[in-house]
């Protein structure tokens, strides 16, 4: 793992747990219940901590900060913090980027978004997600919720770039595959979500 441990994100820690043979934490579960937890006591929160600057699911703090810093007026669709996270992860296949590396890559993605003639290549992102099981290399023993979340974010990241008439049926097919895999797991299926997607012909 690159960088100091205090720059590691939850995705980094998930990989560390898998490497050490530890029982995997369900990080998607923790994200979903974040609003129900109080802030840690006796541990000051540094607002300039690079992990804090990455933003959070459902927010667009990174995008808003970028617009303000570059004097760009807000127009059109924004990019959510986790949409950026997914795009960067998929653009760096096989790597476990830490928070500082992610922030640097966020700026590169946003610079390209506002540069003339620059376009996102959904095909290359799709290739990455199929190969590594999500927007980052996800271990085979990751919690089912994390496996779903890691691919869902790929689909979610495409929304600002794909016309609605194409995105909607694509997202609906993916949602059907999510439910199908969950049913398989309940029946004792052993495939990871990535393996299930490949078996069902989910491709680019």
Description:
The protein is mostly helical and 204 residues long. It is built from 10 helices and no strands. The longest helix has 23 residues, at 164-186. It is globular, with a radius of gyration of 17 Å. The model has no long low-confidence stretch (mean pLDDT 87).
Strand content: under 5%
Structural class determined from secondary elements: mainly alpha
Outline the low-pLDDT stretches: none
> How many beta-strand runs?
0
> How far apart are the termini?
29 Å
Helical content (DSSP H or I, runs of 4+): 40-55%
Order of helices and strands: HHHHHHHHHH
Radius of gyration: 17 Å
How many H/I helical runs? 10
Sketch the major β-sheet: none
Give the mean pLDDT. Answer: 87
> Globular, elongated, flat, extended or rod-shaped: what is the shape?
globular
Short summary:
This protein is mainly α. It is 55% helix and 0% strand.
Main traits of this protein?
204 residues; 10 helices; mainly alpha
Task: Set down the secondary structure blueprint.
Layout: H1 10-19, H2 27-32, H3 50-53, H4 61-70, H5 81-91, H6 99-113, H7 122-132, H8 144-158, H9 164-186, H10 193-199
Helix pairs in contact: 5-6, 5-8, 8-9
